[in-house]
């Protein structure tokens, strides 16, 4: 490749980048119309939507331009555009590749209470269908769930994020999940923050066969499934007082109760040995994992406890925090792959 051809390549790359950036703004304006809006966060979420489309349309041309610029420079001056190209490559991976992946992580717990049946559960959270997680990803999630041999699917809240207005049509793939689906609402489902879609969302989920458990108990296969409200947008404290009356002796061993809640911090409100297992989401596992910074950020924004991804021992019993499926804020994931947790409960 000659120096002249490299120059021409860079010339085209930067001009196509500028054109694609402008096109991204236009598509974002079109895409944002007809959605449920989060009050007072419209501008922030529109900017994030611009990043969503910009990474897809303009990002490759930005990378191309930086590489062409590096090749056109003497060796001693190439490091700056090459470093910028490396950072852009990481950003493109985080925005285009990793959010499209789904991994399955298996956890096994033994010693289930007498009378409870051994079961396999798929645990997911933070689908956030809407602004960033699109229809094809929701359909692929359903396909992956149906490929698993599980007895039930537990969804620990945050089903949507600024979705299209027609929730019934958009969430229709959930009706194709073969296993029974039990879940609770998350903070973004109940305006904390989020648009005023709580009741339409509840109706759409129930129409597609989802059994919502917020504040309820359900006897299932010898287990008692317990759903608790979101900590920010609901009243889990009152539900806990009703389900675990004060003064009652701690159960030993833990009862055949499975608790589903959105925020891990809710589990800290439970009495000792309250459940055989609790499951939660909310943290996204950090979503963009930067050693040192991400744990600090989580502790100052999302959770008071260091429970953000995996199985933890708590006074209330084991807690599984699943890192979620979708994204919010920056439309990207880095070193925190969307995850379906499969939990095996055995004798």
UniProtKB/TrEMBL annotation:
Residues of the Calcineurin-like phosphoesterase domain: 120-284
Listed Gene3D superfamilies: 3.60.21.10
Keywords: Hydrolase, Membrane, Metal-binding, Transmembrane, Transmembrane helix
Protein's UniProt keywords contain Membrane: yes
Pfam families: Metallophos (PF00149)
InterPro entries the record matches: Calcineurin-like_PHP, Metallo-depent_PP-like, Metallophosphoesterase_sf
GO BP annotations, alphabetical order: lipid A biosynthetic process
GO cellular component: membrane
GO molecular function, a single term: UDP-2,3-diacylglucosamine hydrolase activity
Listed transmembrane segments: 12-33, 45-67, 79-97
Top-rank lineage group of the source organism: Bacteria
Matches recorded under PANTHER family: PHOSPHODIESTERASE YAEI, TRANSMEMBRANE PROTEIN WITH METALLOPHOSPHOESTERASE DOMAIN-RELATED
Record-given protein name: Calcineurin-like phosphoesterase domain-containing protein
Organism: Hydrogenophaga taeniospiralis CCUG 15921
Source species taxonomy: Bacteria, Pseudomonadati, Pseudomonadota, Betaproteobacteria, Burkholderiales
């Amino acid at each position: 490749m000659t120096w002249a051809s490299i120059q021409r390549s860079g010339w085209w790359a930067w001009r196509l980048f500028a054109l694609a950036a402008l096109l991204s703004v236009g598509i974002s304006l079109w895409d944002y119309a007809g959605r449920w809006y989060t009050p007072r966060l419209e501008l922030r979420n529109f900017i994030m939507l611009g990043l969503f489309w910009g990474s897809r349309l303009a990002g490759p041309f930005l990378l191309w331009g930086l590489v062409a610029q590096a090749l056109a420079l003497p060796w001693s001056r190439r490091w700056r555009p090459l470093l910028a190209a490396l950072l852009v490559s990481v950003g493109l991976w985080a925005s285009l590749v990793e959010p499209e992946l789904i991994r399955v992580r298996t956890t096994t717990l033994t010693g289930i209470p007498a009378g409870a049946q051994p079961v396999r559960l798929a645990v997911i959270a933070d689908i956030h269908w809407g602004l960033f997680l699109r229809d094809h990803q929701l359909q692929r999630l359903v396909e992956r769930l149906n490929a698993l041999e599980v007895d039930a699917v537990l969804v620990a809240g945050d089903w949507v994020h600024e979705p299209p207005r027609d929730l019934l049509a958009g969430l229709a793939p959930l009706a194709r999940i073969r296993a029974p689906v039990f879940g609770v609402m998350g903070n973004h489902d109940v305006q904390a923050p989020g648009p005023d879609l709580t009741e339409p969302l509840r109706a759409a989920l129930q129409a597609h066969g989802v059994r919502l458990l917020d504040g309820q108990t359900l006897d299932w296969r010898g287990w008692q499934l317990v759903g608790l409200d979101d900590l920010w947008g609901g009243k889990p404290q009152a539900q806990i007082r009703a389900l675990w009356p004060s003064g009652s002796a701690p159960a030993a061993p833990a009862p055949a109760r499975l608790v589903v809640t959105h925020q891990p911090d809710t589990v800290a409100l439970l009495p000792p040995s309250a459940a055989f297992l609790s499951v939660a989401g909310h943290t996204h596992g950090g979503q963009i994992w930067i050693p040192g910074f991400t744990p600090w950020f989580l502790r100052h924004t999302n959770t008071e406890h260091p429970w953000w991804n995996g199985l933890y021992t708590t006074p209330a019993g084991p807690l599984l925090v699943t890192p979620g499926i979708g994204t919010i804020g920056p439309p990207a994931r880095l070193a925190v792959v969307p995850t379906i947790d499969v939990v095996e409960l055995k004798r």
